[in-house]
Design a protein that fits this description.
9-stranded mixed beta sheet; 3-stranded antiparallel beta sheet
């Protein structure tokens, strides 16, 4: 074990996440402006989201319902009363000079999400889920050249967000990656967000500290920002953990600060000293009444929730006799799980369907850089192919060739099989005729086999398969050869 590894094992990493999820509402949280992404700058604005004097916010009920669904899925308790607050800070893309958020009275608290790493399940605590509005977006051009300019786009100002804050329960960058992956899957199942990181629909900041193994007191934490992919988050946390350990081992002290991840240099850089809550001078939002959640409203939100990934995984294992691994892989994506169930409804063996979807179909999709929702092979057409294989009308090997053509042309399995001559030969007499020709042409190998060199049998099987252009049923070939060689 190297010195670095020995030192590393003397420390424990402590990680907590702050995840911002943009809610999939049609309008903003406190006004009627559109939340549509990609339109010309500053075309979705009004006096409310521009922060003009005298404009008053009005809460979007659908945003609250979506936030409740997310909180319930995270096993949080919904507070019957919560309150909005003003979070004061000054930045060019924050026109009011404050953000409407929630502080000491959030929508929901005390939840958890279970992750699984290397086969070991672990519950990660969720401290709170609260609602808030997004800020605008600053656009910079020309940096670092002399012709520099900055612009402000306020289309995003006022877009509804939920902030999900975890307990400091994560102990490695890999656990943080797994948590975010499962959280994203859950939000997509709930259809409360599209979780598009490129468009800023899912953003994450991470708090990380290290402490000597066996010590209960937390070390000084740093916050890592600019994490626009889960892989970048994992790399940034790994780098920051090593950096902090090196500082401590060198006799230095960790400064509580915000750091940015530089993906080109693969390192973090100091940005500013970390703010505390009092720096934001929170106080209750005077233009909004406290938010009251009735039991009826909460139950309405609960009833509208779909079957969640963990429950669907267990049902797949129970109803379709799938392995833990296959069920987990299929339910990681709501669209993939639904595709699988549509295939199975057509009648193929559930295990066979899982194997072909997770291996052959996903291989084709990955090569084409497509999602399951873009598959040119419909569930009905894949089910038809699997039925043909199960009936022995084509082989698994030929089925792969058929599937590739189906993927390229969107055609049905039966049509491709007929056109390319990929129907499996199951006729015993046809196979026997091919076997007799092979036997007659190879007397030396026949003698070897009959003298006890049984390994030659596999060679005969290969020759018959070659003679039938790979179309003979391999099981029938073996049965026929055993009779003919006897």
């Amino acid at each position: 074990m190297s010195l670095a590894a020995e030192v590393r094992t003397q420390y424990e990493v402590v990680i907590g996440l702050e995840v911002h999820v943009q809610l999939l509402t049609q309008s903003k949280i406190f006004c009627g402006c559109s939340t549509r992404f990609g339109d010309p700058a500053n075309t979705h604005t009004c006096p409310v989201c521009l922060g003009l004097p005298g404009a008053l916010p009005a809460l979007n009920r659908e945003a609250v319902t979506m936030a409740m669904k997310a909180a319930l899925a995270l096993n949080c308790g919904i507070n019957p009363r919560s309150r909005f607050a003003r979070k004061n800070y000054f930045y060019p893309d924050l026109p009011k000079g404050y953000q409407i958020s929630q502080y000491d009275e959030p929508l929901a608290e005390d939840g958890w999400l279970e992750i699984e790493l290397n086969g070991a399940p672990k519950q990660i605590g969720v401290t709170r889920v609260h609602l808030e509005e997004d800020a605008g977006k600053s656009l910079h051009e020309g940096f670092p050249d002399s012709d520099r300019a900055s612009y402000i786009d306020l289309n995003r100002s006022g877009v509804p967000l939920i902030e999900i804050v975890t307990e400091p329960d994560l102990r490695s960058p890999e656990e943080a990656y797994e948590f975010l992956t499962r959280l994203k899957t859950m939000m997509l199942y709930l259809e409360v967000s599209d979780c598009n990181m490129e468009e800023g629909s899912l953003r994450c900041d991470a708090n990380i500290s290290v402490r000597r193994a066996g010590v209960s007191e937390f070390g000084t934490k740093t916050e890592v920002k600019n994490l626009n992919s889960f892989r970048f988050l994992q790399r940034a946390l790994a780098y920051e953990a090593e950096r902090q350990i090196k500082v401590l081992e060198g006799g230095g002290e960790i400064t509580q600060e915000t750091r940015l991840w530089d993906s080109r240099e693969q390192r973090t850089h100091g940005m500013r000293s970390k703010e505390f809550a009092h720096d934001y001078r929170y106080f209750p939002e005077p233009d909004l009444l406290p938010l009251t959640i009735t039991e009826e409203w909460k139950e309405e939100a609960r009833r509208s929730m779909p079957e969640l990934p963990a429950a669907r995984k267990q049902r797949f294992m129970r109803e379709y006799a799938l392995t833990d691994y296959d069920a987990d892989q299929l339910t990681h994506s709501k669209a993939l799980a639904s595709y699988y169930e549509e295939v199975v409804k057509q009648g193929p063996d559930p295990k066979l369907a899982a194997n072909w979807i997770l291996s052959e179909l996903m291989h084709l999709l990955n090569d084409a850089k497509k999602d399951i929702t873009e598959s040119t092979v419909t569930p009905r057409n894949l089910a038809e192919l699997l039925t043909l294989i199960a009936q022995g009308k084509t082989s698994g090997k030929m089925g792969k060739e058929i599937l590739a053509e189906m993927f390229a042309s969107s055609r049905r399995a039966e049509e491709v099989m007929a056109e390319k001559g990929l129907r499996q030969i199951d006729d015993v007499e046809m196979i026997a005729a091919a076997a007799r020709e092979v036997i007659a042409a190879n007397p030396r190998q026949v003698e070897q086999y009959r003298n006890g060199k049984t390994a030659t049998f596999g060679w005969f099987v290969g020759q018959v398969m070659k003679a039938t252009r790979g179309q003979a049923n391999p099981q029938r070939v073996q049965e026929v050869l055993k009779k003919e060689l006897a």
